[in-house]
Design goal:
383 residues, 12 helices, single chain, Arc Repressor Mutant, subunit A, Rossmann fold, 3 domains, elongated
Length: 383
């Protein structure tokens, strides 16, 4: 790094304060290219006598340029002009997630986390961990990411093999997954509670006179059974095994269409039952089967689904649903991670999950509502 001379002077007749004159002169020299990225600006002890000002003035001017991001102090080197095209990061966060779990919610959550951390000045690196055997993962990509310094790792879900590997690293890590309390030795975690709206769903069933619920699921997400049993509502679960040869989302929709279509064909659909789909893609398939059979909700059948906000599924009537907002979840996770980076402690009680949206498809079917209104009207005339 080469020191350069001083290309400006200060004047006692100038109306600007001396600190402003020195800062303006150095700033103009940097912008004009007199001092280039990597050059060492003359230190305050040299600037002061050459400009005819005190070291208090030159120190204040250099501090101002440092705050503006134009220069940076390097130990044993001096004040160096920064490359304005190179982002200076406060630190680095690695987001590690099992490969094969990619979906809309995870993509949105990761994007929100990336944006928030980047805005806060942290470099964000996302690493997908390929599954090489049952519950075993390939860590080559993680090892490559850790070849450079990192301040924190955030991992999706608490997969034992991944946690075991992270526990051997010297980098603190947090878990985002279905655990109320983060497993050790994680510094903390954000609880992904898919049952957060189950109590409100059960209360809505009770208020609408529902006696039975049939739940369709193919993965471990919502489990509304405890909340329903607590209010005396029966539940039957229909587990839809995923096709191991084709785990695409279109296949999940097809499974929902086929299994619900069979119930319709066998006339096993009851108006007194709510059909809950713990997955929005299963629900999309079931709604297709419903439409194909010429049935409607809530006129002929009561439907409730899990749903991702801004994604659907779509239906002419507003669906009654447990709605998960991945953008909001990403913000909650980002808040927790930034608090940990700033203060060294992950906040307790960090939790995200769906909210209950009453919608129109689980209330009493319209023919029952119409009958009730008619009876009420007749009763009024009699009086």
């Amino acid at each position: 790094m080469v020191q350069r001379n001083i290309p400006f002077s200060v004047s006692r007749n100038d109306g600007r304060p001396l600190v402003a004159q020195v800062a303006d002169g150095l700033r103009q020299a940097i912008v004009a290219g007199f001092y280039r990225p990597g050059d060492v600006v003359p230190p305050s002890r040299d600037l002061a006598p050459k400009l005819g000002v005190s070291r208090i003035v030159t120190k204040a001017a250099l501090a101002q340029l440092s705050a503006e991001g134009l220069v940076v102090a390097r130990p044993r080197i001096g004040t160096v002009v920064r490359d304005r095209n190179v982002k200076q990061w406060k630190g680095r966060v690695i987001f590690a997630c099992p490969e094969g779990d990619e979906n809309y919610a995870q993509t949105v959550l990761a994007g929100t986390l990336r944006n928030r951390l980047t805005e806060a000045g942290y470099l964000f690196t996302q690493v997908c961990l390929p599954q090489k055997a049952r519950d075993r993962y390939d860590f080559a990509r993680l090892d490559a990411a850790l070849s450079q310094s990192a301040d924190m790792i955030v991992t999706m879900f608490a997969r034992p093999h991944i946690l075991s590997r992270l526990s051997r690293q010297k980098v603190p890590f947090a878990v985002f997954g279905e655990y109320a309390k983060a497993p050790r030795p994680a510094v903390g975690g954000t609880w992904l509670n898919f049952n957060l709206a189950a109590g409100e769903f059960a209360a809505a069933c009770k208020a609408n006179g529902i006696r039975n619920v049939v739940e369709f699921c193919y993965c471990a997400m919502c489990d509304v059974a405890p909340a329903l049993r607590k209010v005396g509502i029966g539940i039957k679960k229909i587990q839809v095994p995923p096709n191991r040869l084709d785990s695409s989302l279109i296949n999940v929709k097809r499974m929902g269409m086929e299994i619900f279509g069979r119930l319709i064909a066998k006339k096993q659909i009851s108006r007194d039952t709510v059909y809950f789909f713990a997955d929005d893609y299963l629900a999309s398939g079931a709604l297709t089967a419903l439409s194909y059979a010429g049935l409607r909700s809530p006129e002929d059948v009561r439907i409730v689904t899990f749903a991702n906000k801004r994604l659907g599924p779509a239906y002419p009537r507003e669906l009654s649903r447990m709605e998960f907002d991945a953008h909001k979840a990403g913000d909650v996770l980002a808040d927790a991670v930034l608090e940990c980076l700033k203060g060294g402690k992950y906040p307790s009680g960090s939790v995200v999950g769906p909210v209950w949206v009453a919608g129109e498809t689980m209330g009493a079917p319209l023919w029952i509502q119409g009958k009730a209104k008619s009876a009420k009207a007749k009763g009024g005339r009699k009086r």
